[in-house]
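Bumping my old thread because nobody answered last time. Still need a sequence for this structure:
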């Protein structure tokens, strides 16, 4: 940690204590995520988790807002896999299921979105 914890603001504390994000780091599978796609300042990072789940980070390194898409072929999911999506920073699940790809719209400049994709058994 690169800050004085006695003087950190609420935003910094929230980032450093994000339980769902920490759980990805502490996942029992122990496999590190890696960059799987990079195009024009838009990056997709992914790594496997226990239970056939996948952690996905979408990073906008551009100077403007952008949509970023994670394709199943890039993140190691079979093309017919249907998943539920959990947004780890917003602490909420997305309302429907997804197959083939996931697009996060309007990611602010220099921001990230982090998700866990969980295959459904339907």
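Sorry it took so long. Here it is:
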């Amino acid at each position: 940690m690169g800050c004085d914890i006695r003087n950190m603001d609420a935003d910094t504390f929230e980032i450093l204590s994000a339980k769902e994000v920490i759980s990805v780091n502490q996942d029992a599978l122990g496999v590190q995520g890696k960059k799987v796609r990079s195009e024009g300042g838009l990056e997709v990072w992914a790594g496997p988790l226990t239970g056939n789940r996948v952690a996905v980070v979408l990073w906008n390194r551009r100077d403007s807002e952008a949509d970023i898409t994670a394709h199943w072929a890039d993140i190691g999911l079979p093309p017919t896999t249907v998943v539920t999506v959990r947004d780890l920073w917003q602490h909420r699940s997305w309302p429907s299921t997804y197959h083939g790809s996931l697009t996060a719209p309007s990611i602010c400049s220099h921001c990230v979105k982090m998700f866990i994709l969980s295959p459904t058994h339907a």
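The two ends are 42 Å apart (CA to CA). Let me know if any region looks off to you.
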